[in-house]
Write a structure and sequence with these properties.
By secondary structure, the protein is mostly helical. It folds into two domains: 80 residues, no CATH class; 48 residues, no CATH class. 46% of the residues lie in helices and 9% in strands. It has seven helices and two strands; from the N terminus they run E-H-H-H-E-H-H-H-H. The chain has a two-stranded antiparallel ribbon. The longest helix has 21 residues. The two termini are 21 Å apart.
């Protein structure tokens, strides 16, 4: 799996910058200083530990990191999607064909795709469900898209 940082809050480039950004947001709650003055303060690791130890977690919400994950398992995406502080834009299995996958995965995917398409066609025959089997503007039927998505 390949992970690339593609964007972040305020152009944060590393962990130290992220910690400082969080510290500044936490300090707003406890200081008479304004934002510009906080930017001049040194980072204090002990302050961060103290804040988190006291349950002051909301400043952590101010940092957003955007990653591009390539070659990750579907189960990882499903797990991350269940987390409250995670948002995803992932390549759609319905509209795209996955590339750069190991041959065994491609073979298994093809078998599942065929199985789902056959099962959809059996359960929802074309004679009764014409829309499901009609080709769309992309040249695929809804049945094919459903099979591809679930394979």
């Amino acid at each position: 799996m390949e992970v690339t940082l593609v964007g972040s809050t305020n152009g944060i480039k590393d962990q130290q910058e992220a910690k400082r950004f969080v510290q500044n947001h936490a300090r707003i709650c406890y200081t008479d200083k304004d934002w510009g003055q906080l930017l001049d303060e040194e980072f204090k690791e002990g302050l961060m530990r103290s804040l988190i130890g006291r349950g002051h977690h909301s400043p952590l919400d101010h940092v957003a990191l955007n990653f591009y994950l390539s070659g990750s398992a579907k189960v990882l995406a499903m797990t991350l999607n269940n987390q409250g502080m995670y948002t995803t834009s992932e390549k759609s299995a319905r509209y795209t064909v996955m590339k750069n996958v190991p041959p065994i995965q491609r073979e298994l995917y093809g078998k599942w795709d065929d199985w789902f398409l056959n099962e959809i066609s059996r359960q929802f025959p074309e004679e009764k469900f014409k829309k499901l089997h009609a080709k769309g503007s992309d040249g695929k039927t809804t049945a094919e898209k459903l099979a591809q998505e679930n394979a």
